[in-house]
């Protein structure tokens, strides 16, 4: 059985890119019982690496959990956890730091970009890829779905695991990065050169999973296209239209038919997105009415994964030379 870890940062509202790129593959894997054991992890500790508001972080963590449940994550088949409620993540993190070079962490592109943006830099921003390695390795994950921006961090996790195994004896499963089937990368509708992202300051090109229908309609109506006037997939020449076609394909689960104009394309995309999101919004409204229920699901998820995580930590402590 394959063990797969998918992480979501509670740094804002989940969007259509998160749904298509990560949440639907997670739900899809549930439909193939006996093949994949998935953990969906809300990475609340990662959200501490940049300036954050504690009240908002707590609310976002519960909201991300509720949206995942609303989108079909079934806690009986997928372990849904908050990263900080599994303390083995942080215990293993320190042990892995002792097997990681400063230079390895400092060369991470995301660290360089975020630390050079101005303002104070938290030490945890430097060490966060090692914590990500711990998240992966502590659960014996052998598959990690990663986008391009996380592939360097996954390589670091693989390097740490391989080095640790060679130096201290076989301790970790060395994970593979995967790109789930049909998990298209969704670009910002106002700037199709950039991926749709929670933390982009402008929401003009983002479709939030809880956005009301009028917002969805407006964002799609204003999506950047081009002057070619032909509806076809051409990533280099027509990135905006290509992105709209990718959204249509992903949301309707079929190849788009012939479309005569950008207006027709946008209408189809609006209908397909709305058909996908309306039931999620409705289920979310029910779940949000009972936050205690969502909190209990997270507590149960943590209890389920901790025995294996504790075994990994015990193995690591023994290998590295610590007392029982
Ligand atoms: N635009 C996207 N298209 C497809 N997949 C995407 N994912 C994120 N954006 C897109 C996938 O969603 C999962 C969770 O992502 P994350 O919360 O770890 O953060 P991220 O990848 O950094 O996504 P964001 O939304 O851009 O967050 P911020 O702005 O906080 O950095 C991952 O599997 C990711 O690949």
List keywords for this structure.
binds adenosine-5'-tetraphosphate; 11 helices; mainly alpha; 2 domains; three-stranded parallel β-sheet; Rossmann fold
Give a short summary of the structure.
The chain has 324 residues and is mainly alpha-helical. It has helices at residues 16-30, 54-70, 88-97, 102-106, 109-115, 123-138, 151-168, 213-221, 239-252, 262-288, 291-320; strands at 2-8, 36-42, 78-82, 143-145, 176-178.
Give a written overview of the molecule:
By secondary structure, the chain is mainly α. It has 11 helices and 5 strands, in the order E-H-E-H-E-H-H-H-H-E-H-E-H-H-H-H. The protein has helices at 16-30, 54-70, 88-97, 102-106, 109-115, 123-138, 151-168, 213-221, 239-252, 262-288, 291-320; strands spanning 2-8, 36-42, 78-82, 143-145, 176-178. The chain has a 3-stranded parallel β-sheet. Adenosine-5'-tetraphosphate is lined by residues 6-9, 11-12, 17-18, 20-22, 145, 147, 185-186, 195-199.
At the first level of CATH, the class of the largest domain is Alpha Beta
CATH topology of the largest domain: Rossmann fold
Using the 3D structure, state the CATH architecture of the largest domain.
Answer: 3-Layer(aba) Sandwich
Mean pLDDT: 95
Count of helical regions: 11
Q: Which range does the strand content fall in?
A: 5-15%
**Can you say what the CATH homologous superfamily of the largest domain is?**
HUPs
Topology:
Elements: E1 2-8, H1 16-30, E2 36-42, H2 54-70, E3 78-82, H3 88-97, H4 102-106, H5 109-115, H6 123-138, E4 143-145, H7 151-168, E5 176-178, H8 213-221, H9 239-252, H10 262-288, H11 291-320
Parallel strand pairs: 1-2, 2-3, 4-5
Helix pairs in contact: 2-10, 3-6, 3-11, 6-7, 8-10, 9-10
Bound molecules: adenosine-5'-tetraphosphate.
Adenosine-5'-tetraphosphate (AQP) binds at residues 6-9, 11-12, 17-18, 20-22, 145, 147, 185-186, 195-199.
